[in-house]
Amino acid sequence: MVIDRYIDILLVEDNPADIRLTQEAFKETRIPNKLHIVRDGAEALAFLQQQNRFASAPRPDLILLDLNLPKKDGREVLAIIKQSPELKRIPVVVLTTSKTEEDINQTYEHHANCYITKPADLDEFLNVIKTIETFWLSVVQLP
Amino acid sequence: MRNLPSPIKERQQTDEIQAYKAEIARLTADKEGLENELIRYKESGAQIIRFANLLHTAADVSKQLSSILDLDRLLQEVITLVKNRFLLYHVHVYLLNEESQQLLMHVGSGEVGEQLRVRKHAIPLSIENSLVAKAARNRKIVLVDDVSQEPAFMPNPLLPDTLSEIAVPLIVGDKVLGVLDVQDDESHRFDQLDVDMFRTFSGHIATAMQNAYLFAEQKETEKELLRYASRLQSLNEIDKAILLSESPENIAKTAVLRLQAIIPYDLASISIFNAENNHSRIYAAVESEAHNSIIANYHIPDIINILEIAQGAPVYGNVADTFSSALPITRSLKEQGVKSVLLYPLLYRENLIGAINLASFQPDTFTENNVTIVDEIAAPLAIAIQQAHLYEEVKQHARALEARNKELEQFAYVASHDLQEPLRIVISYVQLLARKYQGQLDEDADLFIHYATDAALRMRTLISDLLDYSRLGTRGKPFAPVDMNKVVETVLRDLSLTITENEAAVTHDPMPIIIADDVQMGQLLQNLIGNAIKFRGSEAPHIHIGVTKQDNDYIFSVADNGIGIDPQYTDRIFAIFQRLHTVDEYPGTGIGLAVCKKIVERHNGQIWVESRLNEGTTMLFTIPVNA
Fold it and tell me: pTM for the full model?
């Protein structure tokens, strides 16, 4: 399959180590992508609603959302996205270290498209990114 | 005959006179005879009437006496009957007191009798010139026809007119009970008939008295039995309170309320002294609102002081006599109207731990008998309160321990969860380093990266195990019936690869259905069977899973023919992260048996090991049949 354009991915993540790891992982994918990075929930919403310094931000094709964030946490961000008519169609992959059932249930209740526990080592992480790639390839075939 | 010549006539007349005279003399004699006879008749008539009266009285006395079981009423009846029927001057009864060897005037007729009784008139048995004492001493009726002629007579100033007196001993078997003393103001009032009659009477009276004594004794015994039963009940209820593991407050309250039924107190409390912090507590108090200050304040230092001086003995009596007026407690009790008190020490292992305090608004309320009753309650009460204290302490410790355990589990969970996050980064970057720079640096660098990766991965396993371990207690499933056959099958299926690789033979007994957490049972058996295979010897592993029932427990066993465990380490193996081998020899973090132990303990069972080095190991654990 030929991808004729960059896909815009919004990574909402506060941990620089994870940011870099994600960047490294995406370097190895076949999808041309542009990774936009915001460090907390408030920035994520500003980016999505194209406010302030994000006035010219693109609408992302995919959101990678960490749950535990400063200011507004991932659960609130997810809830707002899924209540917004313009944003609710953007696929959201929740990435988190939390394995607790409460978190998982709550996340699915807010219509996260995918819930992924941050894998414990690099190989697994790369696999996850590959899964996202496959996921994306199937998503773009949708209307 | 009228016309006869005079000499003849005179002679005739003289004869006639003679004849008349003789006739008169005869008639006179007859008349005297008749008169005497009449007197005799009259006398025997009176005798008959008297005899009949005596019989009547005897019958009355017998009849009345046999129905009276109260001694005082009985004797009152006796003297009234005797005095009225025979119209006597005075009648009274003395009772013999064997201890003091005195005859005590018990009941007497009229005012004099009452006066003598009130004065507690008594005659020593040994006194010579007393008819009453003499009758009792000799066990014979003493009769005096005229006391004024009797040199040994001791006149009673209250009975100045006495002339005749008869003292009748009252005897049952060979026991003298007393003397019936009868007096009259006529001399020679009593004859043999009277003596006989009084002898008969005395037998009836003495028998009736004996009956009255027996009846009183029986009644006393009954009362004693009732008191005893009541005491037993009190003790029983206190015991019950103890058995129900009630609080010291409840035990004390039960004791105080039970005492109320047998001791007539107005106010009561049980105070427990606390030597450690000098702070005492009142455990149970029965008191009126108006008077609660007495018992509420209690002047505990005073009570402790008083009881310490008494050295373990109870202190009781009237406030005025019992307590020094200098003590604050004395003033307080007096102000509140308390007249008598009973303080009973509660001793535990000879230490004064508290007191039962009883108070009454009446003087002389508390008797030795009360003390005996309190005595019976005090010892178990002291033990009970002390035990209840200990029990509460133990419970508190248990609660504290439980809370601390929960906290630790929570801590282990949070710690291991939070440790995972940075560790994930460490592992990922060490791996990224290896991925990008493997072979581009020198050999040392590659080795260092390898060590770092290896250690980080082992740490991840440890943390993950710790996390699982900490979840065992808090996130277990509720217990339900579990078919252990199915659990064994599942475990063997999960382990099938390992079993095949090691050419292990695993057999098992038919398994019971138990009440347990099925997931944890699987985890338990998987760890044990896994260990049995892992610590194999040179021969192919033979593993048997057995089960026996003993009393209320199933004893499960997992026996192998592996390397065995040196007995000196059998305690260590259940501790978390304890290992007997290096990771190179046998992999693992050393959490498996700690998990097993925690699972078994959560099911109220026990786990242990029987093993000989190089001969194999049997791991055993119990699960209660009725969880």
Answer: 0.48
